[in-house]
Amino acid sequence: MIKLVLDVIITSLIMGGIYSLIAIGLNLQYGVARVLNVSHGEFVMVGAFITFWAYKLIGINPLISLAICGPMLFVIGLFAYRTLFHYLRKSSESIDVFEGRSMLASFGILYIIQNIALLWWGPNVKMYTFLNFPIKFFGLALEANRLVALLFTLVVVLVFYLFILHSNIGKAIRAAAQNEASAQLLGINVHRVLALCFGLGALLAGLAGSIISMMQEITPLMGFPYLIIAMIVLVLGGAGNILGSLVGGLILGAVTTIVLYWEPGLSLVVSYAIFALILIIRPQGVLAR
Amino acid sequence: MKKWLFPFLLILLLATLPFYTGPYMMVSITSILMYVCLTVSWVIFCAPTRYMSLATATFFGVGMYTSAVLGEILPFAVVVACGGFISFLIGLLTGFICLRLKGFYFAIFTFGLNELVRHSVLWWEANVSGTVGRWVIILESMTIYYYMLVIVLLTVLVAYFLRRSRFGLILFSIGESEEAAAHIGIDVTRYRIIFFAISCFFMGMAGAVMATKWAYIDPRIAFNPILNFTPVLMALFGGVGEIYGPILGASLLTAISEVLLSRFPYYYMLLYGIIFIIVISFLPGGLVGLARKWRKEPLKN
Q1: Which one of A105, A115, A283 has the shortest CB-CB distance to B269?
Q2: pLDDT tens, B37-50?
Q3: Is residue A81 part of a domain?
Q4: Which residue in B229, B232, B261, B264 has the most chain A C-beta atoms within 10 A of its own C-beta, making it the best mutation to test that interface?
Q5: Whole-model pTM?
Q6: Is residue B272 within 8 Å of residue B258, measured between CB atoms?
């Protein structure tokens, strides 16, 4: 019984940490840059595949891949914002119109990335073995890769959170999230901050994908469920609230893991039901002020 | 009178179509009709209220499942009506729950709703009915075509007259300014719910008919999330300012995607995604907007 409880707790922490990473990424993109990026899950998938191929072809350690994958996806995200979303923002007459158009445009990106991934990598499930030996831990055998994943997720989340809280760029991001016009008056180059947020969102998704690939099978179609999870967490924590996404991700991770142990088929159903309930009761987010 | 001539000729052509074309063409045109129906019914609710519903697949899928469950028990015309009616009721319920939400949360909600329904049905079929998919009665492609044609005509007529009726004006005024509409005594939420349910009615009927074309359905086919976005794209491509906009948009894009799918099956999604982005970036008013710009008429909506 204690073994089961410990197992559930550790799995919840791993899943929760990954959900938090992905959700903070989406939150930067929607909460600050106002792009509900439907292709967010695809960035997770791309991160996972970059790590997979780097390991298979050149033998790069997946933990080092984190440092390659993140910047690569950051550049892709920055490029997508600079070319497409910046143009849409300038040509939309209001922010509501921009939200609608940018969401649909990101759906187009989802199609494009998914098609390229299927062409290059094929539809088959892929996996590599990494640190696949058990570690004894209070009489509980845990795979080393899961513990490493847990450690790295928590480190990335923590570092990123401190970055948002204390660095100048982080402060600029939070200012832009609260009030764009005032941020601009204070001398913040808002368009640069928004592009940066989009890039950082892609970076976090890539890191999450990299970590996921260490312990799970990957396919070109794996991204979509993570998008849904990120949207649920976004609604749970409130748009623009980074701490909300962090806590929300951990909560959702715990809930889905518990349901998974109890009745595997219902895991997704329960998360959607929670999602629908929250939207009806508190659309501004449960954890929002 | 001149205004009615072209639609009349078009209907005449469509009604007698099986006399001049082969079976492959019929199947293609049936799927064009299906997308026209979905797009026009999406526009009935979403264009005037400026709410973006991403649950087209949900109501379409409800129709499909109605067809699969009732297909062998009842005559087919009744099944289609049932599909529409059940969809209508679920639409009423959904609208009642979520149409108080502000615009963008509504879009996210409907998107999640489709996933909720899909996974619930998947779980139910696997654990209670003990199957994954279901067989649907098979009809001749000619029969499917005529059913679809009648439904499309009905949808377009309803859309056309609603747009011109008092209710259409009420809905437009809600879309323009919710507060102002509420102040002149319009029950904003009630009208939204009714219109939402009406648009669901047609989606359900289309689903009930089209299920017979696929012959086998499972939750992944019936509640395919891509179908949530297709009508939005088609409506935007055509432009929602005039009734012919969505019809034109749906017909052209379906035709294009059929060609893409048969010519470049492996690059289909890639090309479709590029078209998607180009339409959204460069055609904000859709084809209707383009036509108006060309004729130098002022842009409305």
Answers
A1: A115
A2: 999 999 988 888 88
A3: yes
A4: B229
A5: 0.84
A6: no
| Contact between B201 and B92 (Cβ < 8 Å) | no
Q: Considering only CB atoms, which residues of chain A are within 8 Å of chain B?
A: 36, 84, 87-88, 91-92, 96, 99-101, 103-105, 107-112, 114-116, 118-119, 224, 228, 231-232, 235, 265-266, 268-269, 272-273, 275-276, 279-280, 283
Q: What is the pLDDT of residues A142-154, one digit of tens each?
A: 777 788 888 888 8
Chain A residues lying within 8 Å of B270, measured CB to CB: 111-112, 115-116, 119
Using a CB-CB distance cutoff of 8 angstroms, which residues of chain A are in contact with residue B107? Answer: 100, 103
Total domains in the fold of chain A: 1
pLDDT digit string (tens) for B212-260?
888 788 888 888 888 888 898 888 888 887 888 899 999 998 988 888 8
Residue A50 corresponds to which amino acid? I
Of A29, A79, A107, which to mutate for an interface test with B (greatest number of B Cβ within 10 Å)? A107
CB contact under 8 A, B266 and A276: no
**Is there a domain that residue A214 lies in?**
yes
